[in-house]
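Input record (one chain):
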Amino acid sequence: MELNFRLYIATMQPKTTSRFHEYISFLAKTNALIVDDYASLHQWSIDNQAAFWESIASFFSIDFDSPYEEVFVPAIPFWKTKWFTGARLSYAHHVFRNSNSKHPAIIYQSETKPCVEISWQQLLAKTHTIQQQLLAVGVESGDTVVCYGINSPETVAAFLATNALGAVWSSCSPDFGTDAVCERFGQLHPKVMFAQQQYTHGGKAFDTNTKVKIIQTEVSSIQATLWLDEHANFDDKAVAVDQLTVTPVSFSAPIWTLFSSGTTGKPKAIVHGTGHMLLEHLKALALHQDVQEGDRYFWYSITGWMMWNYALGSLLCGATLCLYSGSPTYPTRDSLWCFVKKANINHFGGGAVYFKNQMASPTPYVQQHDFSFMRTLGATGSPLSAAVCKDLQQRFPSTHIISLSGGTDVCTAFVGGHPDLPVVPGEIQCKMLGAAIEVWNDKGWVCVETPGELVLSQPFLPMPLYLVNDPDYSRYASSYFNHYKTAWNHGDWAAITDRGGVVIYGRSDATLNRFGVRMGTSEIYTALSKLNEIEDALVVHVEDTETDSLLLFIQASTKVDHTKIKQHIRNRCSPRHVPDAIYTTPEIPYTISGKKVEIPVKRILQGMSLANALSLDALRNPNSMLWYVAFAKRFKSKQ
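The corresponding structure, as predicted from the sequence alone:
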């Protein structure tokens, strides 16, 4: 049923006007655009890309140091589309134009340090100090600066100092192994590296000096290493904004390089554009999540995950960026919730797996404290099940539960939240403005309310500029346009509902093909989430010349009834979803960014060596794979 948008927003009667409401009013005044529902607005945003993105630039009062000539210059193939040609601007400038004395710039807590507030003046002073170091070692616009550091205020200041000079940023968390870091940084030929000498995680102290020396040796382009530990203390040194060196760059100049997970093969070095990220993150955070000036925004992340870069966008919105460094469940299982309460955080985000585990057994702290100040709770990394969504909504009745799905490739979401549309558990609320999202079958036909491949059928502003060491765009084409020559295939198995919502079933390369029907792995995970005795699970479909088996690996601390599990899956899903065999494993493997390692496990079971199946440095718990290697030998010997 269509939702009359004007009637809907009139009956919502929000306590405060949302940025989305302001944008709708802005369009009515500046573009004479009146839409009846969100679907109509979304269609306008993709049918009129020039007018839409120009309206975003105007609504957020983007300061162009040089004016743009054309907003949108389409091309074939569409990844060659040009945006805001001739324009020059600075991301760091748009952060510091929000400087004020009313709200802190950053709130920070770690496992070992209490909650502290960093004022805008302190952030500016620290950014200036670090920038002087960069200038002293010769960093210029276009150079690459890398960071091997934790999620801390000094790391944010280092990024802003780098960006203000027009240099390109890339970062890895210090829990990445040296092979993984060198595989990444080595592709970029960085001039300078920021590094952390020591950090703590899970109550353990780690010294990184040896690892840093290895990186310095292996990545020979590094001319200087600057220690972040020296900048842990912030002061109120009198520094004016105009003392910061700000070098405007072209709209499509690189801002940062992100990396694919690297679980299989060498990680792709994905380069994003400055103006692209500036406009996209303002749109995504302010309009779709309603992040407003003075809000407090927190997304639990590490510096090696795109959500770290995404969360920086809260500073663009005039919000306070909240950071936490350390394990999310140390020193107590509810450490993040304690931080949310103490810092009075309005927007709390994290991995779907984290929320699943937290809701499976809520702590007394969560049950006993009032979190009504929390306006949105966001999940990403993997599909948020309907059951977990319902649990969260029951636990936090005044909070808007949202789910995002996108990726490192675009450093944003294709589908996500909306402040006024209803929340339907198990669905993501809407396609994001400007994203021409469709679901296609194998023949390239649009699917209606049936599962298929999630695609972008038109250009999308935050698509990567290019991949490093890919001069002819051949790897770019094979990564995103191999399945469909005329559309970006993202690799998600999804469906669009009659309400316009989106269901993500999992990665399409991990879908299950049972008796000619493709199914998402998340359907089985959702069913298993109802069984308290199962702590975690991994499902793979092993197909080769010798076998065709659906295997379920479960993590459980007590003995479980396999017959009960199979019957439960049959009842909750279908007979096709029932595994052929169930095995208890000591641990489920995850990437550092929190995604289940389905495809590498499948490849190992099909006979591939561990070394060829994945890079262990890309895993959060690399030792977990040893069990699967041993299991694969037994599995193959029985065939």
